[in-house]
From TrEMBL:
Domain of life assignment: Bacteria
Claim: Electron transport is one of the keywords in the record: yes
GO cellular component: cytosol
The keyword Electron transport appears for this protein: yes
Lineage, top ranks: Bacteria, Bacillati, Actinomycetota, Actinomycetes, Kitasatosporales
Name of protein: Thioredoxin
Family statement: Belongs to the thioredoxin family.
Gene3D superfamilies for this protein: Glutaredoxin (3.40.30.10)
Gene from which the chain derives: trxA
Length: 122
């Protein structure tokens, strides 16, 4: 499966319509972003059950600002509408596979409970 280009117009639809979305925040002028692109595309090929999306931070500045993206590339993983991972930097293939495996293994009931407790404790 190829990657989906996320925009402010389709963002909510993609996140709400899929249980597991990886998002690569990138820009065409960014060298590390260009280096990470084939690694990301390769992972998309290996994991056709997941949605791999990209946000061009130049074209989608509002979206990048909404997620407080300060460094690119930044990888974010959203499971069941909860951001469970966000980290700047281009990951090597093995590290990306490890992160995907860890995100797959999460107990989302536990994650939601933790989020609710954190929100209630503020």
């Amino acid at each position: 499966m190829s990657t989906v280009e996320l925009t402010k117009e389709n963002f909510d639809q993609v996140i709400e319509g899929n249980d597991f979305v990886l998002i690569d925040f990138w820009a065409s002028w960014c060298g590390p972003c260009r280096q990470f692109a084939p690694v990301y595309e390769g992972a998309a090929e290996r994991h056709p059950d997941l949605v791999f999306a990209k946000v061009d931070t130049e074209a989608q500045q509002e979206l990048a600002a909404a997620f407080d993206i300060r460094s690119i590339p930044t990888l974010m993983i959203v499971r069941e509408k909860v951001a469970v991972f966000a980290q700047p930097g281009a990951l090597p293939e093995a590290a990306l596979e490890d992160v995907i495996g860890q995100a797959r293994a999460l107990d989302m009931d536990e994650v939601r409970r933790s989020v609710a407790e954190a929100a209630g404790g503020q």
